[in-house]
Amino acid sequence: MKGIGINPFSVVSAAEPNTRKAPFFPPFPRLLPPNPSHPLSPPINPPRANPNPNPSSEKRPTYSTALTSQAWAAAGEMVGKSGGGVAEEGGAAAAAAAVRRWVEAGGGRLVMDGGLATELEANGADLNDPLWSAKCLLSSPHLIRKVHLDYLEAGANIIITASYQATIQGFESKGFSKEQSEDLLAKSVEIAREAREVFLKEHSDRAMQHPILVAASIGSYGAYLADGSEYSGDYGEAGTLEFLKDFHKRRLEVLAGAGPDLIAFETIPNKLEAQAYVELLDECNISIPAWFSFNSKDGVHIVSGDSLIECATIANGCSKVGAVGINCTPPRFIHGLILSIRKVTDKPILIYPNSGERYDAEKKEWVESTGVSDGDFVSYVNEWCKDGAVLIGGCCRTTPNTIKAISRSLNQRHSAPRSPVA
Ligand SMILES: [Zn+2]
């Protein structure tokens, strides 16, 4: 649940400098040529953010990089050793094998981050804009970095980029060129990778113990429309497979080329968009594991009314999909939803519910006290683990405190004997 509203909890001006303790933020390369006529345009002329479109040849001296190659090498071996139909089986398991390797390296579970946009708002950002959190790519990248770091400090193994509502079409409608828009997409990944580097420098002890992964967010076409249709899945006449593929294609290519470890297809509201993503992953030859995450309003279907089982089956059929799950859905629905997903896939399951609070679309604000406390949220975690979820975090209106509590709870589970990773 989310909206583009005024956050009653905003206490700090987004323009204020970051006051976080002792972080060193390397100055972010300036990406855009000056466009004084545009109020959001950052200054000056930079080199392109992503000169190397092939992430595998990048030098990324972090543990997660090594693990990325290892995980995919292992997956590749599986494909290479098999032949004929078996090769297809190996291929079908490739991305899931990569995610399992990461999960194993994390001790059997991985902690995901919490809400990014709502936490940016809590840090003073005004996201009342069709770009939502992606507006901060233009106006306050330091806040994005801060929130990524806050989640890493809280124990997250996976941080999700600020590209959920960042699209070439959305930037173009603000007056940016195609190239500038692509740079802004790549910038979302750069910021998350910088945050990871800063974190690993400050916590060299953690670097070799846990994978720290950057997932490039891709929100739905409905999120771009910013008209609530990501919660109805009703795209009217635009709801054709070819239209949706065309809408997402270049965005996917640019984000994948910016060097994330994962592609996060989040808050997928209907079956058609899931199908479009599957076809694009194959046609664009994406070699980075993706996850598919759906949202639900009733604990049975995804928000469009499409069957979760059908949607998870579509995700299961794609070799590039490494994990399947649910996000931005109230915690009380999650148990049943995991059981449905489990019926049709053995891929790792990820869960990052929202706080359960209600969003009042008319007033454009969250209705306080309609959600669960961090403690209540965490009381579900054991159940979700038993149900088979191995990647767990939070979505809108969850905070670094929620993630700290999840991390603590999962670590307690780690110290007790656990059943092997699914
Ligand atoms: Zn959300």
From TrEMBL:
Zn(2+) binds at C328, C395, C396. Its cofactor is Zn(2+). Its EC number is 2.1.1.10. SUPFAM superfamilies: Homocysteine S-methyltransferase (SSF82282). One of its GO terms (biological process) is methionine biosynthetic process. PROSITE patterns: HCY. InterPro entries: HCY_dom, HCY_dom_sf, Hcy_S-methyltransferase. Residues 1-63 are annotated as: Disordered. Residues 24-54 have a biased composition (Pro residues). Pfam families: S-methyl_trans (PF02574). It catalyses: S-methyl-L-methionine + L-homocysteine = 2 L-methionine + H(+). Residues 98-410 form the Hcy-binding domain. Monomer. Catalyzes methyl transfer from S-methylmethionine (SMM) to adenosyl-L-homocysteine (AdoMet). SMM degradation (by HMT-1, HMT-2, HMT-3 and HMT-4) and biosynthesis (by MMT1) constitute the SMM cycle in plants, which is probably required to achieve short term control of AdoMet level. PANTHER family: HOMOCYSTEINE S-METHYLTRANSFERASE 3, ZGC:172121. This is homocysteine S-methyltransferase.
